[in-house]
Amino acid sequence: MILVTGATGLVGSYLLYNLLQKDEPVRALLFNQNSLNRTRRIFESLGADAGAMLAKVEWVEGDVLDVLAIEKAMEGVNKVYHCAAIVSFDPRDHAQMMKINVEGTANVVNAALEAGVEKLCHVSSIAALGRTENSPVIDEKSQFKTGKYNSKYSLSKYMAEREVWRGTAEGLNAVIVNPSIILGYGHPEKGSTKMFTTIYSNSLFYGQGINGFVGVEDVVRAMTGLMESQVKNERFVVSAGDFSYKEVFSMIARGFGKPEPKWPVPSFLLEIVWRFEWLRGKLTGAKPLITRETARTSRGNYQYASKKLHCTLKFEYTPLEDTIMRTCRLIKNDIEKGRA
């Protein structure tokens, strides 16, 4: 039996599909019934009978902060994919993010140790590897250091990894994946998918930075490949390549049939906008479109090396433009049908 946490998120949904396609017995934690709607939509986009596939999953109500639910879900399990996490750069989410990302991971690790699970895959982030103003190429050996270029989200993922390493010291076999910015068809108002819907509305501006990007299906292939291998107690950067935001935004604009971005957003304007968005959020309770942390990231130049994954699994990435074009097609179809 395989247990998946965060099974209705972007990575979790595609992972569920992958495992069910292989007729693997799957159990999943489910905190919010409404989140199944987006997973159902993802399955349909992949050409599946979503209802029939979701019926194959053994659902356990609860979340990673519910110790009893985790212990129940872990019974008879030999593999665990821990995908549950909050990704946020909104200061108001910091406390909840630290609780779910760090304490939740500790709960999963403890339950896996108690249940004698054979292997665990933890979905971390390149953010956990650390950044500086003039970062060299970042790889699996990079060391996290606190500072203004590392967000609270980065810190939470770094601390979550420490819980996994603690588990390996106590006898748990584990692998950690550190994906770069994950692109794919998911919830239109969450994660990187929101970038697509934003560019659909306004494709004229772009950030001046460089970052790593990867398709969600490649992340899942890396996860399952590592779990099926003999590799244990190692981490792997999962990134299809380093791209400027202008390149990525241009590909998305082309995918929507929109004009490509023409104007870089100057740093001084980013500083004004994130402060305005902070104030707007304070007054209205709305989520800010940009925060101080995302403003800094959008103008940083970050490069990542994923050679280790290629050497270990002979792993080849899907061209990023292929992922972007497919995602644009699905999101555009949702928007035209009023479903976005």
From TrEMBL:
<dbReference type="GO" id="GO:0004029">
    <property type="term" value="F:aldehyde dehydrogenase (NAD+) activity"/>
</dbReference>
<protein>
    <submittedName>
        <fullName>Nucleoside-diphosphate-sugar epimerase</fullName>
    </submittedName>
</protein>
<dbReference type="GO" id="GO:0005737">
    <property type="term" value="C:cytoplasm"/>
</dbReference>
<dbReference type="InterPro" id="IPR051783">
    <property type="entry name" value="NAD(P)-dependent_oxidoreduct"/>
</dbReference>
<feature type="domain" description="NAD-dependent epimerase/dehydratase">
    <location>
        <begin position="2"/>
        <end position="238"/>
    </location>
</feature>
<dbReference type="InterPro" id="IPR036291">
    <property type="entry name" value="NAD(P)-bd_dom_sf"/>
</dbReference>
<dbReference type="Pfam" id="PF01370">
    <property type="entry name" value="Epimerase"/>
</dbReference>
<dbReference type="InterPro" id="IPR001509">
    <property type="entry name" value="Epimerase_deHydtase"/>
</dbReference>
